[in-house]
Amino acid sequence: VKPRWINVMASTELGQNARLVRLWAPTWSSRLIAFALIASAGGARAAAEEGLDADRGRFAKLADECRRSDFVRLADTIENWLGPANSAEYRLFRPPASRPAVNANSGAAESNLFAKFIQLRSARAEKLYERARGLSATDPSLAYQLLWAALRDDPEHVAARRALGFEPTDQGWHLPFSAQQIKAGRVWHEKFGWIARDDVPRYEKGERRSGTSWIAAIEDARRHADIRRGWKIETDHYIVTTNHSLEEGARLAAQLERLHHAWRGAFAGYWLTAKELQQRLDAVEGGGRRVEGGKHRVICFRDRGEYVRALKTAQPRIEMSIGVYLDAARTAYFFAGKEQDAGTVLHEATHQLFKETRKPTISPAERPNFWIVEAVACYMESLAAGDEFDVLGRKDTGRLPAARERLLDDGFYVPLAELVHYDAPQLQRDPRVAKIYSQSAGLAAFLMHHEGGRYRPALMKYLQAVYSGKGTTATLANVAGTKLEELDRQYRTFLQADQQSLPADRADNPR
Ligand SMILES: [Zn+2]
């Protein structure tokens, strides 16, 4: 068994910023509700918004109308619907399964205005869908994001739903596995995963179904105590096995689904080809159903001891880690309890997504450019959850504050010309490894967000080269079309600009 790379230094470097580890607390106010997936200014944003500028005027006018009638909440919602014109973060909407209904307490006047709002949104969804179709051959990644944006405006846009693989049920649109569950009379319960709707009251009273009979939760736990007979929690994209508890499995599975959604949006340029998008769009007309790949496998042990015992032969130094993705086993491993760290789960599960979503991929550990493999996993640690959308790359999340401190306060920086040579063993041996991880997180954010995402397409090409085994030490400069020294310089500018533009309310209150 070849030695594999493990994420041993995550906690050390994060420890210095312990307050930033709370990744999954809802953190922002509703006024930030914003434009769907198209997070950036610049070329991509301009192409997406072309011809849609007039919408801003239409939404503003309707908001005014609501305000004059004293429907303040509705006015606020409409006014903020399109969000700020520019944003340095990545916002990933999770559209509801169906169209929102008017508030039951609304009178006729308010209901009318609400209906106008829904009309405006539906018209916009149609334009976004048409734009997506137009861009599918030349910019599949942006087109994919526009399809999601269309769903945000109209959760019942049939063609966009179909293109993204959703199926209709009597409870709105769902992905195939969820739709199948709903059609079988099951509901997703945040503690127990998919269970029969009729079983919910008994589950909540502490009973568990076992075949056709019912047993006590404690007996259920005894039967699943061995990881080989652990609970299996299945979702649209994951199978989580755990011997800790059904509840831990369901919680972890939900967290992983959120990551999956965010990652697919942010890195569409990595995994989605024009051909595949075309197949998705063709599927709208019933021209063939897209076949999804297998589900990602995740195992969560009851505790650290079991995790170490189970993995020590496959992975040297496993006892130093708190999570690992083993690509030979195509499985990510974690353990439950207080030592589990949300950032580590996001990090290792991101390695899994990069490795398993595109085919074929190689194991990137023993080649140059390994830093970018870690960089994008560290970047995904910045995922922060909200009610309607999740956010990536916000300055105060994950390792991004540490990245800024390393460069701007400590003057620590490993130039890219040096970094691109490292393979995993070299990086792991380097005494500066924890700081390099923080720096890498910052560099990934830079490549995603600098100047409205100008390097984002290059980043996707770079990742494709690295994961297909074609990356050399010249690849990054080639795909970016600029010298590495110039990227070093722009990275500094990026972090400095971040500091200046940090709004006072955020700087004072890290939340
Ligand atoms: Zn890693």
Would you write up a description of this structure?
By secondary structure, the protein is an alpha+beta fold. 51% of the residues lie in helices and 10% in strands. The chain has 24 helices and 13 strands. A hairpin with a 3-residue loop joins β8 and β9 (238-242). The model is unreliable at 1-43 and 502-511 (pLDDT under 50). Residues 7, 347, 351, 374, 377 line the site of zinc ion.
Task: Quickly describe the structure.
This protein is of the alpha+beta class and about 500 residues long. The chain has helices at about 10-15, 40-50, 55-70, 70-80, 110-135, 140-155, 160-165, 175-185, 200-205, 215-225, 245-265, 270, 275-285, 305-310, 340-355, 370-380, 400-410, 415-420, 425-430, 435-455, 455-465, 475-480, 485-500, 505-510, and strands at about 90-95, 165-170, 170-175, 185-190, 195, 205-210, 215, 230-235, 240, 295-300, 325, 330-335, 390. The protein binds zinc ion.
Describe the protein's topology:
Blueprint: H1 10-15, H2 42-49, H3 53-68, H4 72-80, E1 90-93, H5 108-135, H6 140-153, H7 158-163, E2 167-169, E3 172-174, H8 176-183, E4 186-189, E5 193-196, H9 200-204, E6 207-210, E7 213-216, H10 217-223, E8 231-234, E9 238-242, H11 246-266, H12 268-271, H13 274-284, E10 296-301, H14 304-311, E11 324-326, E12 331-335, H15 342-357, H16 370-380, E13 389-392, H17 400-409, H18 416-419, H19 424-429, H20 433-453, H21 456-467, H22 475-480, H23 484-501, H24 504-508
Parallel strand pairs: 9-10, 10-12
Antiparallel strand pairs: 1-13, 2-3, 4-5, 6-7, 8-9, 11-12
Helix pairs in contact: 3-4, 3-5, 5-6, 11-15, 15-16, 16-20, 17-20, 20-21, 20-23
Zinc ion binds at residues 7, 347, 351, 374, 377.
